[in-house]
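Reopening: Cytochrome P450 2U1 still failing for me.
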Amino acid sequence: MSFWGNMFPAFGSLQVILLAVLCFLATLALCWRPRNLPPGPRGLPILGNVLSMMKDPWSYAKWSKKYGDVFTVYFGPRRIIVLHGYSVIREALVKKANDFSSRPLDQAFLSPDGKTLGIVEEPYGPKWKEQRKFALMSLRDFGLGKRSMEGKILEEARALGDEICKKDGCAFSISQMMQSAVSNVICSIVFGCRYEYDDTTFENILKSINRVFSTKVVEYLAKVLPPLRVIPSVRRSYQELMQHQTKLLDHIKDRIREHEETFDPNDIRDFIDAFLLESKKRQGDETFTFTQQEHATIVYQLFLAGTDTTSTTLRWALLYMILHPDIQGKVQQEIDSVLGPNLEPSMEHRSKMPYTEATLTEVNRLAAVTPLTVQHATSSDTTLRGYTIPKGTAVEIVLLSVHHDPLLWPEPDKFDPTRFINDAGKYVKREEVIPFSIGRRGCLGEQLARMEIFLIFTSLLQRFTFKLPEGAPKPSEEGIPGPLHQPVPFMLVAEPRK
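Support: Ran it again with your exact input. Result attached.
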């Protein structure tokens, strides 16, 4: 069936009326524009610029060449200001942070019920500051940046290595294993335990996380435009997505209830216990925000933010290693010179391994796992580059535009760690590499993610050499466009190092 057949099957009379009203309202929204908005491509009634985005995932890059680094698009009737390029992104998120650090009130894609916003979706203000400060302090208390957290990550690196050994030189896909390892680190922080990789409950958690991260454009539209849910194909797809959100949230609530039954204020075991303790301390406050639903939502967001992005980055890292065996060899030489065959890596070793650090920075740059950030919004009427942007306007931050900018990176599509190595062989940090975004809404779990990527990557290359299976075609480096920029599925062979 054609795209239009899927989008608009046969309607009843009520559905036709609803769509007609919706079409009229959307046309009004598209025709009325505040004065001095950034320019942008014309959109269709109801859909705005959605069809162009679906047809060409690189539409933003093409539109930026025509309209500049600040332009306007429409997702359905929603107006979105797009920021394209490092200079304008830094200007908005850092220099004008007071104006560009909020969230759209009509989005909440990372809220399981669409109402409880947690940390990720909460607009900029006192509640967000309070919850973020608590989350950061709690993560630090459970070892974020300390050796206790390193121990949890290295435990998973060993478990992952042992699973790889079971393949005994045969070709395999590492996707599921890698996601299990990274998700288990989050489980140890939040639940105080880890799962075996073949545990049915664990497999269902990962399945739900994958489904949420593979949200389709039409499902985003259904969230923004509820009347679209009368279309049977849209309704089925949207309901399936909601079911996976509910399954993940129900599991989290079950674990919270278990913690409530065994809670001991003198023995705080994990993040759930820390939240319960804080909730009990603040129950008399007039501005009480540590509710049970808020608790479940924050844990839900920690799972989503802390699983797929990190595991996808590590899969890209291994793909680049099998495609560039000379670089893999140089990384292994450095690992051997610092760690030898038996010493486990530590974050203290990172400064002694400049080429490895440069390689992982180049992975973050070229892979661009998060092409876009979670949408920002303006908290007041503001101006940017001479344009007027009204309060409450959604703002799209295109990180991909920074990491693939040929003015910043000569031959931007080439994998080249030496971009970050100076003549003295030292690692050189570049402020334009921003995989975790910048400003007040920078990723809450950035420090944890950097620890996981470095420790798991070095542990694996210390134990194995990764290669393409004999006779296998060379995998593409282009990846699959989406909310996460995923590598195309690929097989590899892991040879234990002598």
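The chain has one domain: 3-496. If you still see a failure, please send the error message rather than a screenshot.
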